[in-house]
């Protein structure tokens, strides 16, 4: 597998080199033709003007004509190299102009490790988020409160602002205005590392590293093997891992390619179980999973994250119908919120319309 992948990558890398060599050969032939034309012109001129042109001048003109080919080639290649290398200058200028991220740790304002968040309250206050100042807001005056321990489903059509909500929560993009409070603390006052290590996210694309199963489930080596086995058992992977020759020391290929998509997602879920964060975010975590794996994920969340605040971003509404609270977004605005039952009982609600469109054919 490695040899095949290596050959494919080498072939892909050589493709532009082959085009560059072919273009150089094409250019050389035409420059030689052009140079020969100059030499012929110089020689004919010297012959026709042999009565008025001295031998020295005729020799110099032909000599310079012979150098036209190399001079033109050098000029064209130099111009091409300048254009190519300017891409590097443009990237450097782009990186210089990027807004610098906040500090990783703020000693003066960060809470003591393990003491925060203790409840898991999440509050958005008039949050406005823009990816660029010149662009319209993707979150517009967004306000809501999530009590600690609640399971909240967030839904909306494509472009409603669901993913932007996560970007704001993790401070991947800074707010244009408004506040996000976690247990009463403004996330803007926290160091980025402090904030992000206290929130667990399970995304649609499982994130696995080229390392052992043990290091993927416990990347900071903070837990014993018995705790790792317990987390793996809770996500119904114990039988699979136990059947592997090296068990926890089994190597995980890049992006987890030696495991199925469902198994990769369950490994990520076992990692979240070990972390035991008070706030857990599921970003379309089950969108690409089969029904059986989806059921395992939902059951694990209900059983082992019952005392955590769970924010579930979902496109498939059946995954959030058992939530305590539902937030419905549309173009960055919070258009509805309430319990699933109250929203489904209101036939005029947006959530009812979305549920009817998705669930009626079933």
From TrEMBL:
Domain ABC transporter intervals: 122-356
Pfam families to which the protein is assigned, alphabetical: ABC_tran (PF00005)
Localization in the cell: Membrane
Listed GO MF terms: ABC-type transporter activity; ATP binding; ATP hydrolysis activity
Transmembrane among keywords: yes
Superkingdom field: Eukaryota
PROSITE patterns in UniProt: ABC_TM1F, ABC_TRANSPORTER_1, ABC_TRANSPORTER_2
Signal peptide: none
Keyword set, alphabetical order: ATP-binding, Membrane, Nucleotide-binding, Transmembrane, Transmembrane helix, Transport
Primary localization class, coarse: membrane
Membrane topology field: Multi-pass membrane protein
Ranges of residues in domain ABC transmembrane type-1: 1-84
One Gene Ontology term, aspect cellular component: membrane
Name assigned to this protein: Probable ATP-dependent transporter ycf16
UniProt organism field: Compsopogon caeruleus
């Amino acid at each position: 597998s490695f040899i095949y992948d290596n050959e494919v990558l080498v072939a892909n890398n050589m493709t532009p080199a082959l085009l560059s060599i072919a273009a150089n050969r094409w250019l050389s032939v035409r420059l030689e033709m052009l140079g020969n034309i100059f030499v012929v012109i110089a020689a004919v001129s010297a012959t026709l003007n042999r009565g008025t042109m001295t031998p020295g001048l005729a020799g110099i003109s032909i000599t310079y004509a012979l150098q036209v080919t190399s001079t033109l080639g050098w000029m064209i290649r130099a111009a091409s190299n300048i254009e190519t290398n300017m891409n590097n200058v443009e990237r450097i200028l782009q990186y210089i102009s990027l807004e610098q991220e906040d500090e990783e740790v703020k000693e003066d304002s960060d809470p003591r490790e393990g003491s925060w968040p203790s409840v898991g309250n999440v509050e958005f206050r008039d949050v406005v988020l823009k990816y660029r100042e010149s662009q319209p807001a993707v979150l517009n005056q967004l306000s809501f409160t999530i009590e600690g321990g609640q399971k909240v489903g967030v839904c909306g059509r494509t472009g409603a602002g669901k993913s932007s909500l996560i970007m704001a929560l993790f401070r991947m993009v800074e707010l244009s205005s408004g506040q996000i409070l976690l247990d009463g603390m403004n996330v803007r006052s926290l160091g980025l590392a402090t904030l992000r290590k206290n929130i667990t996210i399970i995304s649609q694309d499982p994130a696995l590293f080229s390392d052992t199963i043990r290091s993927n489930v416990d990347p900071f080596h903070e837990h014993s093997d018995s705790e790792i086995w317990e987390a793996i058992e809770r996500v119904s992977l114990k039988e699979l891992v136990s059947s592997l020759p090296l068990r926890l020391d089994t190597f995980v290929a890049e992006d987890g390619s030696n495991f199925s998509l469902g198994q990769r997602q369950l490994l990520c879920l076992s990692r979240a179980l070990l972390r035991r964060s008070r706030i857990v975010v599921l970003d379309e975590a089950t969108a690409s999973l089969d029904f059986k794996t989806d059921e395992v994920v939902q059951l694990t969340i209900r059983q082992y994250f019952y005392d955590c605040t769970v924010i579930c971003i979902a496109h498939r509404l059946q995954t959030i119908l058992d939530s305590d609270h539902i937030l419905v977004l549309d173009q960055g605005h919070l258009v509805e919120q309430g319990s699933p039952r109250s929203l489904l009982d209101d036939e005029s609600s947006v959530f009812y319309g979305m549920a009817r469109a998705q669930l009626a054919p079933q």
